[in-house]
Write a structure and sequence with these properties.
Two copies of one chain form a homodimer. Chain A is elongated, with a radius of gyration of 20 Å. In chain A, the strands form two sheets. In chain A, strands 7-6-5-9-8-10 form a six-stranded parallel sheet, with helices on both faces. Chain A has a four-stranded mixed sheet with strand order 1-4-2-3. Chain A starts with a helix and ends with a helix. In chain A, strand 2, helix 4 and strand 3 form a beta-alpha-beta unit. Chain A is built from ten helices and ten strands. In chain A, helix 6 runs parallel beside helix 7 and helix 6 packs parallel to helix 10. The mean pLDDT of chain A is 94. By secondary structure, chain A is an alpha/beta fold.
Chain lengths: 249, 249
């Protein structure tokens, strides 16, 4: 049973200005919520689920305290869901905080995203980073918010395994002194001719404008996916996947 | 100036059951519409645009007849647009028909999509095919519709250059007798160890279920993108981009 203030609270979490002061985010659907419940980095705040889902997941939920679980009717789930088709469970998790931490164990490669605007692209890039074993995705402060509902859904659970932080790109590069930096940009070295790398920073630019000039001009290595056909560009997430598949060791 | 019947007609084109009998589709925004106007495969039916856009594009529109161009106010564009933020111009184009044609000049590789559900993924895959010089994307009849507004937008203009058709996957493979067929599936040969190919059919499966078993079991070559990290899967469009970047000659 949901009270009005809970509905209002969850709806407010659709906006970054309400989400961030609370330090939480929303994830939905059985698959995503089940995966995030297993992450040591994401403490659960509250879980809203229909009876059927709660019964199937009784064992998994045994360690939670009863005030963390709210049984809702489908009609109630519809009122709080951010999905076009609400799907059994909505969970509010605490945002992990990784800012300023050094690279953790895993790949020595990090992604630096310059002004990625689409939350779906951002979430997909985090999922790609996870697939290739990267531990760290750094976003310029003007990038989309990874705790946006659509971004969270697009990570498909990788938000619980990859450190996503926000920092000035130039400052991040300076902090990682000595690490090679690769800018994906037109007219660079073909990724097909490069050796794989075990460490470094790969910079991905905005969906339509690429990497901003003030940043691009600071980076000596430019790398490119050779084009065979006629499309003007590739989607930013697709380009990230292709680059990592050729370079990540 | 728009009359009510025009508004109703364009809105109806949001649904495949109204779109297909008319044999048309909708594209929006200055960049996409400008690009599609250049395609020899896509005759324009009608273009609805705000005054500013019409003035800037006066020369480009000189070959069109006056009944193909309708000047609209921003408030009218909002009533017919399928975008969250309407963007200066909406155009109705005739659907190209390529079904059953042999591969045209260009890459000897075609993509075969088995039950791709998300229109954004489908459009992005068509854009990727275009980037790698492919001429042909064949979709199983239960795949998303490439003339869906979101799919069209995601192609970023490649819908005017790549032949997208719908056909039973097994029938398509049979028609291309002798061409090697590669199924992207778990546990296949690593794409990193394969030679590039100049001809063949690459099969991409459904976003969550992969290639259906009845089709997969008919295909001897299975290929895989090796996973380094922990994400359970890659987005279908991202996987397509990675596979083509390693295999397409």
């Amino acid at each position: 049973m949901l009270v009005k203030s809970q509905v209002k609270y969850i709806q407010s979490l659709g906006q970054k200005k309400f989400r961030d002061p609370e330090g939480v985010f929303v994830a939905e659907g059985p698959k995503l919520v089940s995966e995030l419940l297993m992450s040591p980095h994401l403490p659960l705040v509250t879980l809203y689920a229909v009876k059927d889902w709660l019964e199937i997941n009784r064992e998994r939920l045994a360690t939670l305290s009863s005030h963390q679980i709210v049984e809702v009717r489908n009609s109630e789930l519809e009122r709080i869901s951010f999905l076009a088709t609400p799907n059994q469970v909505l969970a509010v998790f605490r945002q992990p905080s990784f800012t300023g931490l050094p690279l953790k164990q895993g790949s020595g490669i990090s992604l630096l995203l310059d002004n990625i605007q689409d939350p779906g692209n951002l979430g997909t890039i985090v999922r790609i980073a996870d697939w290739f074993g990267l531990r760290c995705v750094v976003c310029s402060p003007d990038s989309a918010d990874v705790f946006n509902a659509k971004a969270v859904q697009s990570t498909m659970g990788s938000i619980g395994r990859v450190q996503v932080s926000y920092e000035d790109p130039a400052a991040y590069i300076d902090r990682q002194k000595g690490l090679p930096v690769y800018a994906t940009a037109l007219g660079g070295t073909s990724i097909y001719t490069m050796e794989r790398i075990s460490r470094g920073i790969i910079v991905i630019g905005n969906e339509s404008k690429g990497i901003r000039e003030s940043l691009l001009s600071r980076i000596p290595h430019h790398i490119t996916i050779p084009r065979i056909g006629e499309a003007e560009s590739l989607n930013a997430a697709v380009a990230t996947g292709i680059v990592l598949s050729h370079l990540a060791l």
